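Lab notebook, bench 4. We co-purified these components, and the gel suggests they stay together. Before we commit to crystallization screens, I want a quick structural picture of the whole thing.
Request: model the full complex, all chains together.
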Amino acid sequence: MTSLTLTNPALNTAVPIDVAIIGSGPSGLAAATVLKAAGVGRVVVLEREQQAGGIPLSCGHPAFGLREFRQLLSGPNYSARLVTQAQKAGVEIHTQTTVAEILRGGVLTVATSDGIFRITPRRVIYATGVRETPRSARLISGARVQGVLSTGALQSMIYLQQRRPFVRPLVVGSELVAFSALMTCRHAGIRPVAMIEAEQSATARWPCALYPRMKGIKLHTSTQLVEIKGNKSVEEVVVAGPDGQTRSIECDGVILTGKFTPESALARCGHLHVDPATGGPVVDQWGRCSDPVYFATGNLLRPVETAGRSWAEGQQTGQWVAQDLSGKLPKPAKSLNIVIQGKHLKYAMPQVICPNGDTEGMVDIQMRVTERVSGTLVAHSKMGPIWKRSLNSRPERRIKVPISEIVSQATDGTVNFEVEVPSK
Amino acid sequence: MPTAQPKSQQSAQKALSTELFDVLVIGAGVVGCAVARRFTLEGAKVAVVEKASDILEGASKANSAILHTGFDAPTGSLELSCIRAGYREYERIRDDLGLVQEKSGAQVVAWTPEEMDKLEEIVAQAHENGVTDVHIVDANTLRAAEPNLSERALGAVNVPQESIIDPWSAPYVYLRQALDNGAQVFLSCAVTGGAFDGQNWQVETSNGALRACAVVNCAGLFGDLVDEAVLGEAKFKITPRKGQFVVFDKAAQGLVNSIILPVPQEKTKGIVLFRTVFGNLAVGPTAEDQQSRTDASTDHDTLKGLIADGVDKVPALVDMPVTAVYAGLRPASERKAYRVETVPDRNWITVGGIRSTGLSASLGIARHVYGLYESHGSKHQQLTDPEKPQAAVLAQTGERDWKRAGYGEIVCHCEMVTSREIEAALNGPLGARSMGGLKRQTRATMGRCQGFYCSARLAELTAGKLEPPLSEEFGHD
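Here is the predicted assembly.
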């Protein structure tokens, strides 16, 4: 980064920082809290937004907190609980504090309204979560008009600002978040004209799939968004149904839900290796990045899990980083690369496995498929097939492959995973 | 020639201003902004009318953000002389007005032996055009300069002075300088007709009438329609040519150093791969003739084609995420040449058909138009010490606002736009009146998340200021 004048630090840099956590969502706060509980000295969370808590802050409806607090909480209440818990444990949380760049060896350039400064914590946990894929990256045809929003933007507008961008939008997608969008609409008196899903059935599981019908909003499956029309704002959309026939639907907005992608800008524009398949940094089974000072956790690892699971991952990452600080993680060395092949697998994470670690890390390799598939998931090493299992899956369903079963067959080189589908 | 009748003659329109202006500039695109600046600096009392609610809403809102040297412009053409003069003036005023210019240089890359054969000709034309440092580079030299370029590249013509600039801060500051030195801008005023009484013009707009001694029509995509509405006829017809673009993630910017041009085809410069001063890498434009003067829609297949073209030239782009897509409309006429038409007996000048080099040539066009105006007998006292407003600093190499303490909060995280910048853009002398205007003045929402994180905060900050608004308040039952 050019022409950067470092000025006065907004946080105390006289006392060394043991761990800095970028992002204060559920995974970041969980990691921070666990680190303090494990006796780590100075743990700081750096949050660029005005308020700590991450994405749940803008989800005004339940259901958060079952796993963490054994009760159903709204997003903001859930975030507030996590923040309080972290602060009680002794975590420093700095809001409106932006990490502008990450450099080798854990050097972070930090921007605040009071000045720009650098810190060099002993470890960095990168926990910036996911966001939805915008209209541009989906390459949707049509006029570039106002009123095309992601669920995230819609929810912030409605729950944080009490403002609404439209009243009769089309909802695109049927992942879990699409149903969250419906609840958000209901809260603001927005009545979606319809919900469309390109696949032949809803992506999210029952009973969520019944939700739009319950509220009188019809879900059209096998239906694609073809074009957005309008002068300055959305006026209508063209969709193509199962028979390929197109038709117009009048509406004043479009909610593009799901198709999550990790918010990995710092890694992409910095030195950390990024996996094009997950969109997040390349990690080993402890979430350790290509620069071993950095660890990644939560949804940044891969799209997408619930807040509860991200929180649980953050807790684990906190443990591993605490162990690393006391020298208990093996140095990154000769390792096994996990690679996906063929069109059916969307990603595999971790991308690297360090086979000689005594410290247990992630138990499973997490995978997802790109489309509904049924066949055999096969792992190949240079010796040939080393592992297989039948697979019947759909997009956004969790697939787990026990790391121990793979490591028992191969300890270095590359293991390729592929879904083999019997020819008809 | 028949005397034109104002369409609203019967209804005796209310006056937008009681003042008699020396010059009325129709259209606040890049050309209109530069013309308003030039006339103001020469001492004329200038009014600018723009039909949109914000400036730069037509052809000027989308282009490839390149300051061309004119190396490949038609030799001997008005276009060439305006590009050359425009380039020189841009360099001269750059530091005074805080403008950015990155001399990335360009490589006109030959991908086939047939294209290799054309390189000599390109160099010869460039030299004839006065761009004497243009030269051929062989495959190895090209590879050293552009290591990520596909191995299919056979050689290139290197154009060292081709530059990348901020395509919006420049015209904003041109108009701002006009404004600060006495010009007036009237937004949301579409010209509907007008009459010349032998001395002065009365120009009718959708929002009231204005009087001026002379008129310069810089209405771009609507230039012919304005001539028809006011003069009764137009000497050219605009057929908009759409150009679609794809902008890649900022992670891609290091893949290319210079502007990668193709060997030109008959109709256009072809598809270009270029860095922006904001730190992106973009590919485009296409060239699609159409009738609509407003429809700048993009389409899936064309965008995929552009991405494929980018990957073909720079294979490392294969997994690169897309940040933005856009389309611009070029005001092309039936001829390739600029259509600068004068009606001396009615003090009227039309600047039409500025189809693709408007950003580069605008300052030169403004000088040329002022010269025509003077040659018809008008003369003013040049300003001796004009105000010099400063352009917004949006280039990544510049001293962006977030690098200066006291910025308030960072609202748009992808493009690092501060609340101080947003407030300045909304409340400044050329305050943003549309989301498009706010984007051009600050870059808010133009980054990779396209508003996922900041739309809500922007809706709050812009409430009551933009048309159409981003949101409305809702009541709870």
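The two ends of chain A are 55 Å apart (CA to CA). Worth comparing against the SEC data before the next meeting. Residues 129 and 300 of chain A are 4 Å apart (CA to CA).
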